Amino acid sequence: MAGTRISNEELDKILSQAEEKERKDPKKRWITRMMRSAKQYHKMCPYYDKRTGKCFLKLGEKCERDGKFDGCPVFIEWLSQKYDELKSKGRPLPMDFLDLTLSV
Q1: Could you count the other beta carbons within 10 Å of the beta carbon of residue 83?
Q2: Radius of gyration of the chain (CA)
Q3: CB atoms within 10 A of CB 76
Q4: pLDDT (tens digit per residue) in 7-57
């Protein structure tokens, strides 16, 4: 089996570059923080209707993920829109998911 080996220094360099990119994007950091915070309070997506299986964010369409919001593109897009909205209005960004839901 032929393969190339990568040295520890090269691996560290690649990982540090990836971490730098992640640190530079405040929007992505905020969205990640809100996802982690939401997971603390909710087992299922807070915008999922268990009874009907529909997503409130998609205005009543069926949820394709059955309420799992970890990595859900609809939930991430909603958080992204909230970030843009709050930044454009000049309002401070909430540090917790519950603060975000109260400010909406």
Answers
A1: 18
A2: 18
A3: 16
A4: 888 877 877 776 666 566 889 999 999 999 999 988 998 888 889 989 888
Give the side-chain half-sphere CA count within 13 A for 71: 1
Tokens of 34: 């809100």
How many degrees, rounded to 5, is the angle at CA 72 between CA 68 and CA 73? 160
Indicate the residue type of 20.
E
The CA-to-CA distance between both ends of the chain, in Å, stands at: 56
Backbone angles phi, psi at 18, to 5 degrees: -65, -40
Which pTM was predicted? 0.71
What distance in Å separates the CA atoms of residue 93 and residue 95, rounded to the nearest whole number? 6
Enumerate the β-bridge partners of residue 54.
49, 62
The three-point CA angle 44-81-31 to 5° equals 55
- Per the document, the length of the chain is 104
